[in-house]
Amino acid sequence: MDNILEVKDLIISFRTGSGTLKAVRNISFTLRRGETLAIVGESGSGKSVTSRAILGILAGNAIVEGGEILYDGKDLLKIEEEEMHKIRGDKISMIFQNPLNSLNPIVKVGKQLTEAMLLKNAANRKAGKIEFNTMLADLKTHMIAASPRDAEEIDRLISDFDRFNIVAIKLEEQYNAVHTKLSELIGDIDDFLFRLSRERKHGGKERLKEMAKALAALRAPLLTDGFEADLSSNAAQLTSESASWINAKGDKSQSYSDTLVSTLGKVRALLARITTAERPNFFRIGYYVYRNPKADFVGMSVQEVNEITLGALESEFMGRFRALEEKGLRHSFDISCAKKQEVVAAIAEAKTFFKGDFTKSDAKKKCKELTALVQASIDRLVTVKDSLAYTFESSLSAAIDTYFAAVVNNPKEEKRFAEQSAKRQKLINAGKSVEWEVVPKSVYDSDALKAGVAGVLDRLEKKYTADIAASSSVDFTARGVEMIDYLKEKASQVVYKLTKRMAKEKAIKLLAEVGISEPRARFNQYPFELSGGMRQRIVIAIALSADPDILVCDEPTTALDVTIQAQIMELINKLKRERDLSVIFITHDLGVVANMADRIAVMYAGKIVEYGTADDLFYDPRHPYTWALLSSMPDLDSKDRLEAIPGTPPNMIYPPVGDAFADRNKYALKIDFEMPPPRFEISPTHWAATWLLHPDAPKVEIPKVITDRIAGMKQTGGADSGN
Amino acid sequence: MATKNPTNNLPDDEVLLRVENLCQYFKSKSGKFENRAVDDVSFDVKKGEVFGLVGESGCGKTTTGRSIIRIYDITSGSIYFKGQRICAGTRAYQNEIKAQRQTIRDIKAEGAPDAEERVSACQRQIQELYAQIEAAKYDHKHSDHVYAQKLVAECDQKFAALLAQAGTSREKVDLKRQYKAERKLAKKTKLITKIQMIFQDPFSSLNPRMTVREIVSEGLVINGIKDREYIDQKVYEILELVGLVREHAGRYPHEFSGGQQQRIGIARAIIMNPDMIIADEPISALDVSIQAQVINLLNELREKLGLTILFIAHDLSVVKYFSDRIGVMYFGKMVELAPADELFEHPLHPYTRSLLSAIPRPDPDFEKVRKRVAYDPLAEHDYSVNQPSMRELTPGHFVYCNDQEALAYQKELGL
Asked: A321 pairs with which residues across the strands?
């Protein structure tokens, strides 16, 4: 399993009226693909702050003092908002604690769900067009550069390619339009049947008339002539039956509505059959129609048409095109490889430069030089974008900016410190007792910040060295096929239009997927009309509507009761399996995560105090805080007085010198008050930060409650299949 | 207090709170439908016990608690506290009257020879029902007054005896003064203040513009105690009892942590010297490490003050730890009622089983194989022929079921 998200040495503070509050103090963890990481801690332990940092939605007074959050080769803390905007919600989604707060109270559930889908569709279509055109232009340039003698032929081939794609797009658009109508009609029928089941005849009359009309006007999409007769006969039947239903009064209306329901069911099945019929290959057909504008496919099945057109395309066009394309790709790749070598050399030199002292203008100049090199080294004909190289400029300049903002140029902080100290001194000189302290200057670790700059360079260097090493084993034939597939996909993307009614059907499917009963009714309700569990499901559905890679769940079940909690957890687990999601699950209740977590990080006062797999944490807990969390809650067998944790968490404006938990810890040693404990590794997957694990520490017994419980678990554990 | 409900079977002198056929309906927005938040719920709460009420959100457990302290006017049923009816609804009587009138109409249409006799019997019954409605309305409105009168009468009796014994005239004057003061207090006493409530969200249940002293003493002030010194003394005493210090009295709620805020909420409730506390999810909004502190505090107070607690919660492990008896509610109905251990050992109603199967445990191996039992009332029960009711299957263990189910459950229990 590879790491999808890595958090390294993250430090976050909040500027407040009474000083800088250290919310997250140097935490690191990794999230693997398809795994669940649970972060457990009390309120104020910094777990939510961490998750918000991942999404880039920290409060305005937050300062990210250091660290990296690496996702997909990018440092989420350093990329620009524009870039972040594409990731947030799309690649990384979040479920918030209070479902009512995260839903808009005056917008219906359905609209909130479809909003993102529609926006994404519009953006996709626009982007598809641009990407298709630029890629084709780049390809042409490189192909001509690779075989200058065939320039004329290449020019013709490319323009042919462009033109027949336009034909294909037009055909596909027509086909899609019919399909849109079909699926809208299916939605309408579902809607109507639903309303009829609720016995609301009045509103349905107009709808039914419209539906009958739409069905009569509907022509079967391209190449599916077989359905034409069925469609028209069904339309006629529906028209007559709907008329008798509308005019029916009294006792007869029941029998009319019964026949109407059965007819609608039949029509719906027919429409569904058409929508699921095999899709013609428009790329091929586009070429064929482009060559023979009068082509007629009457009476042919989709497979036949696909085959005929494929033959024409391969023999007349593709063979030559592929050969030239391959050369072009190789040409572009060779150039990029050479440039990459230059970049690697330049980076080695830049690294020594950034190690020493440097002024801001010099650093910026260096950054510009490097960026120009990196930009030139990008192989534009690779379909999977090398995000690291594309975002190199923003990452590097952001790292440099942070370095200078923090280390060199922080007059505000200096001024505040000077003013406060002067004021205090004045009061003391005047003989008054001063109770308050001067808030110390925020101290920045310049080495760490420099390391941040070096990290950006390192990552690119590593990537490029690997690329150069692998350059001999590239299969250009496969790349050529990939390129054509990419162009095809972009062309379809342009014509895939999601209408509001289609989005509604998609949203209703999604609502059903997250276990909402009667999704069609829920679609038109407001959030306040739903119970807590239902609201939370809708929040989850919204989070999933963009199909993210990572789902961050910030206490998704805290406001819910046991049964709903269990359902939501099962739902998240199920979706995780089905969609291969990686989940970060934040909670204050250690009890609920045993079910789903693969790994658990226990946080206290901005630090991770214990980290391990679920089995490690529950069967072999080592940190006193973990013990306290486990023993403070009653389970089904506890009878004795509960072992409450005395006191409250420390004030993080003045974080404790030693172990932050020492004050509330009955096992605290003297050293706990003086020095923060380092990590002690218990097994390769399990570590804890407590002095109790030091070889010289006195032996401490785990609280009896926990040992008893673990013993009990071992008895009932796996053998008991639960009741 | 004669009753026909099996769940109201405890001897009268042991019962502190008796809820009889409680129904609480809310009208929907359009006014066409009724939302049956609580539907025909009956149970007894013994003196000094903790009675847990569990169920998912929206099942009516909070509504039950709120109906008991008369935040809502109940639709139907009666609630007795210390033997005195404090709430009464009239819907059931009205429905009965309607039914009787229908019978009269039917009888008249039938035209049988003994029609007149039967009609007059029905009419007598209707008269009786009207009388009961009047009684219910009177009790609902005047229960505090009746209770105060009872106290006054007790006070009168007590002092009459003392005065009769008193020798010197000086003693008599003293006694008379004391008598007057006590009688005045007794007259003002409200029965309902003997039930106090603790709310779920500690912060939103405290007025942010009042100091802790004002919040905690508000009940005393409303009840007509004017002696500042006495009030302060009482406030300090209570604050120390709930684990705060007297310096806290001058502060405002936002200066406290969640656990401390909940302690203030508890102090406000117990300063009225209540016999009963309704704790509505008192720990759900708190951090795990603080929850244990609050539970321990409630346990201590219960021992010290001899409180009876109606504990409403959805966290089953806490409810089991804290309660003596547990009632499980589902969509406004009480579906199972049993002593805590018995309920967890032999859950009978499918909903209870589903609820128990949903409890998360801190045990990964167990969790991996845990099967949550889903509860679908339509699939589980067939009530088309035989109507369900509360039945006592083993002593103290009640289940809402019909005849066949009762037999099946008994077989399961090995009876």
From this structure: none
